[in-house]
């Protein structure tokens, strides 16, 4: 009897062993494990956030938007444990190119950059490609062939321009003469916000002048002063390609003795805190959102690119439009 039950126990144990091995994906023995070195080697080579080295060539610190964008890139690197090499090009393309070259020489895993202008990047991006370093364009796009970058992460600037145009139509149903403060000449957001706005603008609204304020408050103020000098109270609307230029212009309008937001309707883009404050004060009518908090998405894409994944040509960021009515309610929640 005892013999029989131990025989049954042995058989059950054997059966269990066989079914375990059959159902398992793991190699059954040490020998067969060494048959599959490719898989284990490739996992060992896979980069993680903790050993990822990123070179980031930022444009500068021209606006509130840029400050928030830089903070997002730096803070997210810290949170994820990414080794970030960061440079500020002070709005100069040659400084950005030099920074990218130094990241190539250092042999970083991946390069991120916001091209200050759209043209003139082929040579340096080809150098990165030759060195096998993927490049991700963040926020702004460069006009280069698809094979020179892994992906572009950023906003639909044409759509932002269209939204701004529609808002201007709503603010000026009877039409009238308006002026435009353009962003940095040759930059993707300036080019696209210029064309998108014109696509949407009603026929009864005339853009009587359009000049660059380089995306800065000082630039916006200076150009608006010139507009006011030339056209005075003929101007009934202002379209600014970013909030900082609108805020500079608001000062110029007040100094000229007109009421911003009332005598001159103002639409701008970014939706930074300064714009919410201006809306609460009744000096800005609308701001169209452009999201600068691109850090988390950037590192996720960077890691995927480094690990050999094909990425889409464009990863758009989600955006909204804000008005004075609930600006004070929303301001405390704004992160930038
Ligand atoms: O709108 C402006 C900044 O490239 C989208 O650059 C960005 C723009 C942003 O200086 O404020």
Task: Tell me about this structure.
- The chain is α/β, with parallel strands linked by helices and about 325 residues long.
- It has two domains: about 50-155 and about 290-315, Rossmann fold (3-Layer(aba) Sandwich), CATH 3.40.50.2300; about 155-290, Rossmann fold (3-Layer(aba) Sandwich).
- About 45% of the residues lie in helices and about 20% in strands.
- The protein contains 13 helices and twelve strands.
- The protein has helices at about 1-25, 30-35, 35-45, 65-80, 95-105, 120-130, 155-170, 190-200, 215-230, 245-255, 275-280, 295-305, 325-330; strands at about 55-60, 85-90, 110-115, 135-140, 150-155, 175-180, 205-210, 235-240, 265-270, 285-290, 315, 320.
- The strands form two sheets. The protein has a six-stranded parallel sheet, sandwiched between helices. Strands 7-6-8-9-10-12 form a six-stranded mixed sheet, with helices on both faces.
- Helix 4 (about 65-80) links the parallel strand 1 (about 55-60) and strand 2.
- Helix 4 (about 65-80) crosses helix 12, helix 7 (about 155-170) packs across helix 8 (about 190-200) and helix 9 crosses helix 10.
- The chain is elongated, with a radius of gyration of 28 Å.
- The protein starts with a helix and ends in a 6-residue tail after the last helix.
- The relative contact order is 0.12.
- Beta-D-fucofuranose binds near residues 63, 189, 215 and 244.
Give a nutshell description of this structure:
With 336 residues, the protein is of the alpha/beta class. The chain contains 13 helices and 12 strands.
